[in-house]
Amino acid sequence: MTNPTHPSINRASDNGALLKQDMGARARVIEHTIDTLLPLTTGGDARLIEAMRYATLGGGKRLRGYLAIVTASLFGVPESQSARVAASVEMLHAYSLVHDDLPAMDDDDMRRGQPSTHRKFDEATAILAGDALQTKSFEILATSQTHTDANVRIDLISAFAEASGAAGMVGGQMIDMEGEGRALPLEEVRHLHALKTGCLIRYSAESGAILGQASPDLRRRLRSYGANIGAAFQIADDVLDATATAEELGKTAGKDEASGKSTFVALLGIEGAKAEALRVTEEAIADLEPFGAQADRLRDLAYYVIERKN
């Protein structure tokens, strides 16, 4: 999506190396935190833990976890706390992917360039691993190690539940399944993606403000930023599904068209979808205005979301 005549895109290119370095460093912190929170066991639950670790460790962009850590850093929150929130959201995201790949849903055999969890293990184990990751993600938020103030923990849990349940990610998945083979109007597609993909990314950005006990205005701005890059992320996914190979994506390509899903590409065409992604990205950038240079990596991230190759 690079446009050499667009000054914002040029800025993203100049700072891409800094963003990549920062994302890599935060990803290692998140990976270590998940590894610590899901220790191996030799008991009767060993296979379950192995499947949970398989679904969460060793891959992925860690976009949601990165957002949680970087937004929290705007308010001086210790990384030991924000890394737990990051691990929590990455576990819930992993559960959603494990279930999404099941034959009863998207029926996908590949995820992050390797066999899906139900192909590596079996369907029953994959279902249980997803269930356990979901509950573990809330358990992490409920402990005082995440924050000493119980009101902050309750706020995190409440926002997380809203973003991940029937009014958020799960509801979006249902709408997506119901919409297969039907021509949905653009506004319905926007709503679908705002729930299925956007809500969890929105929460990830907002969680840093919750941890940092930010003012209502700053919390609202980060929530809006997250919603906008969530929209941009999904539009970019639609474009990649239509243009990239399975090897580039690390998962099956072309599934949207094959299953008759209404996407931004189907409704707007590839160039129209790219233009829409850039529009919401620039709205996300505007949300960061009060944070000044402190939010530069978040600005770079917004452009990374629409320029990524997988």
Automatic annotation (TrEMBL):
Xref: PROSITE patterns: POLYPRENYL_SYNTHASE_1, POLYPRENYL_SYNTHASE_2
One GO CC term on file: cytoplasm
Cofactors demanded by this protein: Mg(2+)
Key words of the record: Isoprene biosynthesis, Magnesium, Metal-binding, Transferase
Pfam families given in the database record: polyprenyl_synt
GO molecular function annotations of the record: metal ion binding; prenyltransferase activity
Cited Gene3D superfamilies: Farnesyl Diphosphate Synthase (1.10.600.10)
One record GO biological process: terpenoid biosynthetic process
PANTHER family: FARNESYL DIPHOSPHATE SYNTHASE
Family: Belongs to the FPP/GGPP synthase family.
Protein name: Geranylgeranyl pyrophosphate synthase
UniProt source species: Acetobacter pasteurianus NBRC 3278
Gene: ispA
